[in-house]
Write a structure and sequence with these properties.
This protein is of the alpha/beta class and about 110 residues long. It has two helices and five strands; from the N terminus they run E-H-E-E-E-E-H.
Length: about 110
């Protein structure tokens, strides 16, 4: 099974972004690239995207990368090709956030192996 190691974290709030980067790196063991907005070109080593629902753009729909929303959401996120779900960083403790991200990614990996 391939593990997801590189996550692109899009979060406009600098303090929250730094906290999420830290917990995903230390607790989750991920290599996290935190930025404040979705780039035009997603780096090739990225294997998943964490992004607030209101920032998700149409061009993610054609992406083969798994997407997790960092805010509670309703469509259009659920219409994304590889939308895994949401984990609200502001509603749960940060270690629990990292664990929820890990579980969503693990579930995705298991389903994509079939």
């Amino acid at each position: 099974m391939t593990n997801i190691h590189h996550i692109l974290l899009i979060e406009p709030d600098k303090n929250l972004r730094e906290s999420l980067e830290l917990v995903l790196t230390t607790t989750g063991g991920y290599a996290v690239k935190g930025i404040n907005k979705l780039p035009e070109i997603i780096p090739s080593q990225i294997q998943a995207i964490l992004i607030p629902a209101q920032k998700i753009q149409e061009r993610l729909n054609s992406s083969d990368l798994p997407v997790i929303s960092t805010t509670q959401t309703t469509p259009p996120c659920t219409q994304l090709k590889h939308y895994l779900g949401h984990v609200s960083a502001q509603q749960i403790a940060l270690p629990a956030f990292a664990e929820q991200v890990r579980l969503l990614l693990l579930k995705h990996l298991k389903s994509s192996e079939k």
